[in-house]
Design brief:
Elements (H helix, E strand, L loop, with lengths): L6 H26 L11 H14 L5 H39 L3 H6 L2 E13 L2 E2 L4 E8 L3 E6 L8 E9 L2 E16 L4 E10 L3 H27 L20 H13 L1
Antiparallel strand pairs: 1-2, 1-3, 1-5, 3-4, 4-7, 5-6, 6-7
Length: 263
């Protein structure tokens, strides 16, 4: 469901602008021709009385309560549309969560979601972690472990201190152990895909991971829906036939290219 365009709000602003313009014109007219409005001096009290009489004589005073009623009606309509939009989003979120939340607790903990999160880690030797900080990429994640891709030659049984950043404000430090390894040849180096089982992870950190999985799953579902409907992946606006292959509208594509060039 798309967020409704506030047509009524624009109409209300237009009516208010016309009313204010009319009032301003009346003020200017009264100021340029004070004698016609009974303003013989520029005393403030006399001017306001004459201007009030001018509004009443020109039947403008009745527009004030009408305008107030219109604004109240528009605000009520916008609130109603916002509630509908929010309920639709919550419904979509619940549908996305149901694919994971319907699983038993044990299976939900180990349900893996594909990802592409950067991470850093240190290898632990004899209960002491090495000082070198290695970089890696998490290719899938669950509440019980993850799989990372790295150029380090990790072995089954290696203990790690893993630093995982789910978002800019949330960074987790988790201890884990390598349970399986696979190796792939890249153009420049050998990539190790290591399955990590989390150890000594508290429930708060585990819940944070599972919540991230819910949001990530919902974002993927929303992205697939936008692709099927021919909408921009970033802003959700309809794409022209020429832009559908890029998946982004020209404005969002320009923003992406700027961000890529920046880094």
């Amino acid at each position: 469901m798309k967020r409704p365009f506030p047509v009524c709000a624009v109409f209300s602003v237009l009516v208010l602008s016309l009313f204010l313009i009319g009032s301003a014109a009346s003020v200017a007219l009264a100021g340029t021709s004070p004698s016609e409005y009974g303003i013989l001096t520029w005393e403030y009290s006399e001017f306001t009385k004459a201007f009030r009489a001018h509004l009443q004589n020109n039947n403008l005073a009745h527009l004030v309560p009408l305008l107030i009623a219109l604004i109240i009606g528009v605000l009520g309509y916008q609130y109603y549309q916002h509630r509908l939009f929010r309920q639709e989003k919550l419904k979509e979120l619940e549908e996305a969560r149901s694919t994971v939340a319907s699983l038993p607790t044990q299976r939900r903990t180990w349900h893996r979601v594909q990802s592409s999160l950067d991470c850093t880690f240190k290898v632990i030797h004899d209960n002491e972690s090495e000082q070198t900080l290695h970089s890696g990429r998490i290719v899938d994640l669950s509440g019980g472990g993850c799989r990372i891709a790295s150029t380090q030659n990790l072995q089954i049984g290696d203990a790690l201190f893993l630093n995982l950043q789910l978002n800019p404000r949330q960074k987790l430090a988790i201890k884990g152990v390598v349970t399986r390894t696979e190796f792939e040849n890249d153009e420049d180096s050998k990539i190790c895909l290591a399955g990590i089982q989390f150890q000594e992870i508290n429930e708060k950190s585990r819940d944070s991971i599972i919540k991230w999985m819910f949001k990530h799953h919902q974002a993927v579902a929303e992205g697939n829906r936008r692709i099927e409907d021919g909408l921009c992946l970033r802003c959700g606006k309809p794409l022209s036939n020429a832009s559908r292959d890029n998946l982004f509208c020209p404005k969002c594509q320009s923003i992406r290219e700027t961000n890529i060039n920046r880094f």
